[in-house]
Design goal:
Helix 2 packs antiparallel against helix 5 (about 145-165). The chain is globular, with a radius of gyration of 18 Å. The protein is built from 7 helices and 7 strands. The chain has helices at about 5-15, 50-80, 90-100, 105-110, 145-165, 175-185, 200-215; strands at about 20, 25-30, 35-40, 45-50, 120-125, 125-130, 140-145. The chain has one domain (about 25-185, about 200-225). The strands form 2 sheets. It has a 4-stranded mixed beta sheet with strand order 1-7-6-5. Strands 2-3-4 form a 3-stranded antiparallel beta sheet. Strand 2 and strand 3 (about 35-40) form a beta hairpin. With about 230 residues, the protein is α+β, with helices and mostly antiparallel strands.
Length: about 230
């Protein structure tokens, strides 16, 4: 296949990549794989199953990716939440989703020097995107996380990853990944309900996180994190 055809094919794949804004996330492990169910509670989740060895590298990069994204996070949140009534969780989630879906992730993905079938992380618009492809998911997807959300999920990811490594499972193949994805899809969603924090609790938490951001060590973005110009 010529270079021109490869570029056209990759752009076509990227244009059909599903973008999932993560409002809810369930972490687990099964048959030697780290599993995720992500999305919002109003529609079926996107299910992900990644072999432990592959997931190790991704989980190891999440902290750096979240720190990188937070450099633009607070500015992005300020823009996204403009006009939203404080305390209106549903309106805030809808506003953030609308904002993130308008941020042209596909153009950023197009400029990443990686094959469309690879699994990798990128930061954009103050958030972290996990680009993932079959067989680890049912279709090409970009899963978008809040960087502070990733900080909260980190212990659960590390625990599930350790359990996946310890699981004496058969060799992971596309067929076994497919079986795990089918299992995840069949489970109730969400499996548990969480009590939303009060406005006062949420405000105090955000203020504390912003203070920590302002007082953390200066961050120098690694050159390899910069996406090449088109």
């Amino acid at each position: 296949m010529g270079k021109g055809k490869r570029i056209k094919q990759q752009r076509r794949i990227l244009s059909h990549r599903r973008t999932v804004i993560v409002d809810a996330c369930e972490i687990g492990q099964r048959d030697g794989m780290l599993t995720l169910r992500v999305g919002d509670t109003h529609s079926p989740p996107t299910c992900v199953a990644i072999p432990a060895m592959t997931a190790t590298g991704l989980v190891g990069q999440l902290r750096t990716a979240s720190i990188d994204a937070e450099e633009l996070y607070w500015r992005a949140i300020s823009v996204a939440m403009k006009g939203v009534t404080p305390g209106d969780a549903d309106a805030a989630a809808a506003a953030l989703r609308s904002f993130l879906l308008k941020q042209n992730w596909h153009e950023v993905l197009r400029r990443v020097p990686a094959d469309a079938s690879e699994t990798f992380l990128l930061s954009h618009a103050g958030h972290v995107g996990l680009a993932i492809a079959p067989p680890f998911v049912d279709r090409q997807s970009l899963v978008v996380f809040d960087p502070l959300q990733l900080r909260r999920l980190a212990p659960g990811l590390q625990s599930a990853l350790a359990a996946a490594h310890a699981d004496i499972a058969p060799v992971v193949t596309p067929a076994t990944v497919s079986e795990v994805l089918a299992f995840l899809t069949a489970q109730p969603w969400p499996s548990v309900s969480h009590k939303e924090p009060s406005l006062e609790q949420a405000s105090a938490e955000m203020q504390d996180r912003y203070r920590k951001f302002l007082t953390r060590e200066p961050y120098l973005r690694p050159a390899e994190h910069n996406v090449p110009d088109a």
